[in-house]
Write a structure and sequence with these properties.
- The protein starts with 7 loop residues before the first helix and ends in a 5-residue tail after the last helix.
- Helix content is 66%, strand content 0%.
- The chain has 458 residues and is mostly helical.
Length: 458
């Protein structure tokens, strides 16, 4: 005790002398104290301090015992006496700031004889690192002159490597429950953005490990459910911000944990209609965003799209019946080529797009075209199944709208190859359906077979 706890060389000399001259007697009197002191000292001599001296446990105590200013060497070295003699609580208080991503692995190697548990070393490492990140973020926000708000979502990673190292640190914990608590703490402390999403993925991994070791524990299951929900919500929100779709209407669905409704709302966005009518403009990629959100939430994106198509492709019930009552033969003028060879409608012909459809139906048709614009083989088969259906619930207008979608999305050569049918035959059939739909609107009974065989020369 007469030697400064920071004078490692003097302490090493004394310990060596004790062990050489009276090792057996001192071993009997003090247990393994001297052996433990030697091992700790050996570690400290290779270690450089990273934190400031503790005000109470070091600076104040030094002044009380020596009545002199604190030694400069104490800023580079830790006190051997404190590590050797302090109780667990005070020892953690003395050392907690020493545990960082750069140093914690070294401390893990000596945790047994230093007397600080692996869980505590990793926990303090997490706390110190995340606190530093938050403080740096706050400083950057305070000095930011761009007008960014405090809660603004940060699209890109600022601390990706650090968070990955923290996840590796947490995996060193002996108790997975502690690891789960530490990773959840990180998620709650980080600012909103890509880093928070990454932290949530790490938290989910720790919850899964905890569940694997305690498969029948209800707390484990609840923690896993919460971690999965949090990860999915944050990752979904990240998608909205990346695609510039973070509107209140969409964020509300995330808060309600309803990704299905969110995808529906994305495909119902009025900007989809605008982009279908106006070539110029910078519009969000709603389809790509919806696909990513479905993948994040383990949902079948194709099934959701076909649900929307089944809702939008048939003629709506809101189509006015008054116009049918007022229709006369004198009004019966139809451009059979309008929908196929030019013009300004959804397929190139305004007449074909509006002959039997309300504005709502035309808008829904544009949405269907957008949903199917990836041009997959499955989309063709879906549309052909409708066109060729004998189901009485699939009426003429439903088939006609399916053909309009098909010709809007695919070129003739591509359609010939994918469908196995000649596009000219499909065009001819589409003309027949246009005429038949107008006849049906006049309440004239006619079907495809009778129309195709009747004399139309006059």
């Amino acid at each position: 005790n007469r030697i400064s706890p920071y004078n490692y060389e003097g302490l090493e000399f004394v310990l060596y002398g004790i062990q050489m001259t009276g090792g057996a007697r001192h071993q009997h009197a003090g247990g393994d104290t001297f052996g433990k002191a030697s091992r700790i000292l050996g570690f400290l001599m290779q270690y450089t301090r990273v934190s400031c001296p503790h005000p109470e446990l070091e600076v104040d105590n030094w002044f009380k015992e020596h009545s002199t200013s604190f030694p400069k060497i104490g800023h580079k070295r830790l006190p051997l006496h404190g590590i050797l003699n302090l109780g667990n609580k005070e020892k953690c208080k003395l050392l907690e700031k020493e545990f960082t991503l750069d140093t914690y692995r070294s401390w893990l190697l000596v945790s047994d004889f230093v007397g600080v548990s692996v869980n505590n070393i990793c926990s303090y490492t997490v706390t110190n690192t995340v606190t530093k990140i938050v403080e740096q973020q706050k400083t950057a926000s305070d000095t930011n002159m761009t007008g960014a708000t405090k809660d603004e979502w940060i699209i890109s990673h600022n601390n990706k490597c650090v968070l990955e190292e923290l996840n590796a640190c947490i995996l060193q914990m002996k108790n997975p429950e502690n690891g789960n608590a530490a990773s959840n703490w990180i998620v709650n402390r980080l600012p909103r953005g890509a880093d928070k999403v990454l932290a949530a993925k790490g938290n989910l991994r720790m919850a899964q490990i905890w569940m694997e070791r305690n498969p029948n524990d209800e707390d484990c299951r609840l923690s896993l459910d919460y971690a999965l929900k949090t990860k999915n919500q944050l990752e979904t929100e990240q998608v909205l911000y990346r695609y510039k779709l973070a509107d209140a209407n969409y964020l509300e669905c995330i808060e309600q944990n309803n990704p299905t409704e969110l995808i529906h709302r994305l495909y119902e966005d009025p900007r989809i209609l605008t982009r279908s009518k106006v070539a110029a403009g910078d519009y969000p990629d709603f389809a790509a965003a919806a696909e990513e959100i479905a993948s994040i939430n383990a949902m079948n994106h194709h099934a959701i799209k076909y649900q929307l198509l089944n809702r939008w492709l048939p003629q709506s019930n809101s189509c006015s019946m008054n116009s049918a009552a007022n229709e006369t033969f004198s009004d019966f003028n139809i451009n059979l080529n309008g929908g196929l060879d030019g013009g300004s409608g959804a397929l190139g012909g305004e007449d074909s797009a509006s002959d039997v459809e309300s504005r709502e139906d035309r808008d829904n048709l544009l949405r269907c075209i957008y949903v199917l614009q990836n041009g997959s083989v499955e989309s063709v088969h879906y549309l052909l199944k409708i066109v060729q259906s004998d189901d009485p619930t699939v009426n003429t207008v439903h088939k006609l709208r399916a053909l309009k979608c098909m010709f809007s999305i695919y070129g003739e050569d591509e359609l010939d190859k994918i469908s196995g049918q000649q596009s000219q035959q499909l065009k001819s059939f589409m003309k027949d359906l246009i005429f038949i739909s107008r006849m049906e609107k006049l309440n004239l009974p006619v079907n495809v077979e009778s129309f195709q065989t009747c004399n139309k020369s006059n």
